[in-house]
Amino acid sequence: MPGVIGVGPAPGHIGGDDGRDGGGGGASGTTLPGPPGAGGGAERAAWGGEGLGPGVTHGDGSTGHRTGGGGDGDGSGAGRGTGGSGGGSFGGGQGPRDGGPAEDAGTHWWQRRAGKRTLLQLGVALTSLLMLPSAWLRVEAAPYLHEHPSQVAPADVALVLGAGLVEGRPSTYLMQRLREATELYHAGTVQVVLVSGDNSSPDYNEPAVMYDYLVEHGVPADRVVQDFAGFNTWESCTRASRVFQVDEAVVITQRFHIERAITLCREAGIETQGLAAREPETPRPDISSELREIAAATSALITTWTRPEPEHLGPVEDAVPDALEAEAAGD
């Protein structure tokens, strides 16, 4: 309905999209009713109407609106406003009170400056968290890690961890580990070699292939002991301690694996040094290998907490103590 305005300063209605009629607030004196809707209703885009007269704007003019500037009224006494609060939201932005543009109107929160800063902080925190297990392994293993056989202190046993077979022969990684063990034995640094690997099926026998390689390269057969249930690093270390009665050892594996091997064997109760076997080729870091190592380091950390039982622990065996006695006796 049209607004009828009395004498003197009075509020006027600015027509809005709620269908109310526009009236004119304005200067003192008698004003005529404005025609319906002609008060230039502040649309949903208005920040707040500004009355040129002393009238107080109401309705859509005072509550402010979503994304645009103030509406122009062509009814009597209505005008453009600076008043009103910039409340409400539409499309993600809130209008400032001075009629300026909405900051990042219509954008998602992560596209705004504050959102990008929050995402960056979260990314840094997550990366730091993921790197913690690797850093922990590095610190734990550093005092016991050797890069060359000549650096290794004398120990009873060399523990060689399996690294796969290719057509019934040692893989290139495994061959390097076996070469290091052979060198340690012939140098008199170790007395017995314990080879630990997978023999979960009749046609796949890592320890037997490792045994054959060592014997072919001059290590006496009775100084090589086979562990047929070394399905992973923790199981190899645990079985070396609990089944084969190993108290001290040099664990042999490649650089990418050596810190985990040292830490897990020490957690299993073995006084452990680690020898990083030479790489068959220079590794080229890439994101997939880095992610694998992060996952492996995290798994190793969890293993030290949970200390799972080996899949096949088995009874205690005297093969390693017997071989050490024979070596000491010169047999």
Automatic annotation (TrEMBL):
Signal peptide: none annotated. Residues 37-98 have a biased composition (Gly residues). Residues 156-276 form the DUF218 domain. Residues 1-106, 305-331 are annotated as: Disordered. GO terms for cellular component: plasma membrane. This is Vancomycin permeability regulator SanA. It comes from Allostreptomyces psammosilenae.
